[in-house]
Amino acid sequence: MILQNFKATENEFFKVPTLELARNLLGCLLVKDTDEGVAAGYIVETEAYIGPGDRAAHSYGGRRTKRTEIMFHDAGLAYTYQMHTHCLVNVVSGKIDAPEAVLIRAIEPYHGIELMKKRRKMEDLRNLTNGPGKLTKALGISMEDYGRSFAEPPLLIADGFVPDDCVVERGKRIGIENTGEARDYPWRFWIKGNPYVSRRLKR
DNA sequence: GTCTAGATGGCCT
DNA sequence: GGCCATCTAGACA
Prior knowledge:
Elements: H1 18-24, E1 29-34, E2 37-50, E3 78-83, E4 86-93, E5 100-111, H2 113-120, H3 132-139, E6 151-152, E7 155-158, E8 168-171, E9 188-191
Antiparallel strand pairs: 1-2, 1-7, 2-5, 2-9, 3-4, 4-5, 6-7, 8-9
Helix pairs in contact: 2-3
The structure holds a DNA duplex.
């Protein structure tokens, strides 16, 4: 199995401030192993959601419910949730009882591309994983992954490339128009010019 | 129990 | 740019 070729990121990797983690996750490999095979891609776009003070976060105001519970736990766990017809995936960050997370918005297909195409029912490489709902479907990430660790199979965040000659850009988050001042926080990070960064040019 | 909005995506005009 | 599928957490009664 090819999975052993991927080295899981050490737990310590996740124990940095959330904005830093959102930045550091760029270039890492996101891997999912299933009965159908292994699929993986480089993370090229993320967004930070920072706990009680962030109106756009599900954990705004310290809201601790069945859904947000996992965000109060250790960094490096998976927070998955259903959005309309899709499942979105976050990396829990922050210390215990600090409900913070990083949304993975886009990846660049790297491994298991045929499997991803099959799952997405399309051939277009560019549209396979360039959005938070698309990448979960392509990788086979679902609500079953809620609470799983990103440091052990079947779900992994592994060392990827170091985006040395890649410029990281930073800007407003997407799709949170009705969240007051939080709307304008520059907590979205992406690799400049990468063709797999999501595009939803709404204001 | 009932109601509503939503960290989206795909198809339509 | 508009519409809507599809569904659940969360709020309120």
